[in-house]
Specification:
By secondary structure, the chain is mainly alpha-helical. It has one domain: Hemerythrin-like (Four Helix Bundle (Hemerythrin (Met), subunit A), Up-down Bundle). Helices cover about 80% and strands about 0% of the residues. It contains 4 helices and no strands. Helix 1 packs antiparallel against helix 2, helix 1 runs antiparallel to helix 4 and helix 2 packs parallel to helix 4. The longest helix is centred in the last third of the chain and has 32 residues. The N and C termini lie far apart (about 35 Å).
């Protein structure tokens, strides 16, 4: 389970609240899997991920631009790569329907990617914003 861990906190209220929302969605997917309903829950998770990545990444990028974050272009490329990955998984879902393989990809790859991204990249943004007094 991806219960929120304060070590993942960036210190930015907006970013942290959106990250917590994401972890709740991934946890709901894991709970559905544990009860044998993962394939049934997959469409809801895929829809959430598409809308979440669009909104959350836009919010993060706006904060980066407002604060003059020096690594903005690199961070944006990382976001674009992840959105592409989510789109590929969504396309596979649309083509093949729900499968154990897709449930596994969402649970393992997306959850793992997000935690690493938060710990490696998003914390840097929050520290930069704090250093700007914003």
């Amino acid at each position: 389970m991806y219960n929120w861990n304060e070590s993942w906190a960036t210190g930015n209220t907006l970013i942290d609240s959106e990250h917590k929302e994401l972890f709740k969605a991934i946890d709901a997917m894991l709970e559905a899997c544990q009860s044998g309903k993962g394939k049934d829950h997959l469409k809801k998770t895929m829809d959430f991920l598409k809308s979440y990545t669009a909104k959350h990444f836009a919010d993060e990028e706006k904060l980066q631009q407002q604060s003059g974050y020096p690594d903005f272009q690199n961070h944006r490329k990382i976001h674009e790569g992840f959105k592409k990955y989510v789109a590929e998984i969504c396309a596979q879902f649309e083509k093949e329907g729900p499968s154990i393989k897709l449930v596994g990809l969402v649970n393992l790859n997306i959850g793992d990617w997000l935690i690493k991204h938060i710990q490696r990249e998003d914390v840097k943004i929050a520290l930069h914003i704090k250093s700007q007094g914003k």
